[in-house]
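Sequence only, no structure available. Ideas?
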Amino acid sequence: RQLLDPRFPVRQAAVWTLAELHARSAAPQLLAQLPAVPAESMIDAAWLAGEFADASLAPQVTPLLAHGRPDVRASALWILGRLRAAGTAGAVRPLLADADPAVRAQAARACGRLGKPGDGSGAALLALLADPDAAVRYFAAAALGPLGEQAAVPDLVRLLDDADTIQFVQDNRQAEIASVRDAAMGALATL
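Reply:
I predicted one. Tokens follow.
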């Protein structure tokens, strides 16, 4: 009942409670209501799906990639990366060119988790190594190693001089500070 409450704080508390209780069965029902709820509730509902890492929920999250609000698009990308659903990398790649840097960063992160060597994800990420936003460069560099994108080596070597740092929340919800240089070194080590 609280999931349908007109007050956002009540809905948000309900979603977080379901996550704490590991109420997996609630995620599909909640996601089914996405078209009718405010953007903040969309983010929370989709986050709940990501917490359960149930790839079958990806078709309900994917439409959020076209949402008008950048925070909803960025959240959907984070969640799709967590879900690791096969076949979603193609839906994620266009958002590498989004106007919002938070969306581009999450698209790069998701491509690193969803892409496969040779599927075009690595090639699409190459341009982001020169992005003006440090978080975008960080996640693009981190994604290129696992994708085996050998063409990235010269740009990754250039990023070894990039001392910009970012702070982000890892999947375990602990804030981390990392440098673009660290991501480049990690990618080069795997190529």
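The chain has a mean pLDDT of 82.
Hope that gets you unstuck.
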